[in-house]
Write a structure and sequence with these properties.
The structure is a single chain. By secondary structure, the protein is an all-beta fold. The protein has no helices and seven strands. It has strands at residues 10-26, 29-50, 53-70, 77-94, 99-112, 119-130, 136-145. It starts with 9 loop residues before the first strand and ends with a strand.
C-alpha cells in the first residue's frame, strides 16, 4: 500500500461526538429564519487533498434537539423545542473539472419537548455545483417538513 502522503496527497480523519449547527432555513423554506441543532452521537470528518484538488466530508448521527427561529420586527421569535434523531452530511469538493462549494443533507425525526403528541419530520438538502467555465450548473436548496 502507498501511504496517503505519497505523490503529494494529504489526508486526515477526525471523529466527533457533538454537533452544534445553525441551518439558514425553517419549515417555511430556505432563508426564512434559522434552525438551531444541538446533538450528541457519532460523527467523522475526512479531508483529502492532492495536486488535482481537495475533498472534505463530514457525517453525523445521534440524538439531540432542534429549535426554529423566525425573524420579526422585534427580533427573532423562538419556536418549540423538538428532541429526536439527527442526521447530517456535509461536504465540499474542488477538483480539476468541477467545484462543489457546498452540499449538505439534514434529517430530523422527533417530538415536541413540551407536547410529545406533536411530531416533526424535517429534511433539508442543498447543493451548488460550478463547472470549469464558472457556470453554476446546480443550485438547489429544498426543505420539507411534516
Amino acid at each position: 500500500m502507498i501511504p496517503a502522503g505519497a505523490a503529494g496527497a494529504q489526508t486526515f480523519t477526525q471523529h466527533i461526538n457533538t454537533l452544534a449547527d445553525n441551518i439558514p432555513a425553517t419549515c417555511a423554506g430556505p432563508f426564512t429564519g434559522a434552525t438551531l441543532v444541538n446533538a450528541t452521537g457519532n460523527g467523522v470528518q475526512h479531508f483529502t487533498g492532492n495536486k488535482t484538488g481537495f475533498w472534505f466530508t463530514a457525517t453525523f448521527e445521534g440524538q439531540g434537539t432542534i429549535q426554529q427561529f423566525t425573524p420579526s420586527p422585534n427580533g427573532p421569535v423562538a419556536g418549540a423545542v423538538y428532541q429526536g434523531h439527527v442526521q447530517e452530511w456535509i461536504g465540499t469538493e474542488d477538483n480539476l473539472k468541477t467545484l462543489i462549494p457546498f452540499h449538505a443533507t439534514f434529517n430530523f425525526n422527533g417530538t415536541n419537548v413540551a407536547d410529545p403528541s406533536q411530531a416533526l419530520s424535517m429534511h433539508i438538502e442543498t447543493q451548488t455545483t460550478i463547472n470549469p467555465d464558472g457556470t453554476v450548473t446546480v443550485n438547489r436548496f429544498t426543505v420539507s417538513c411534516r
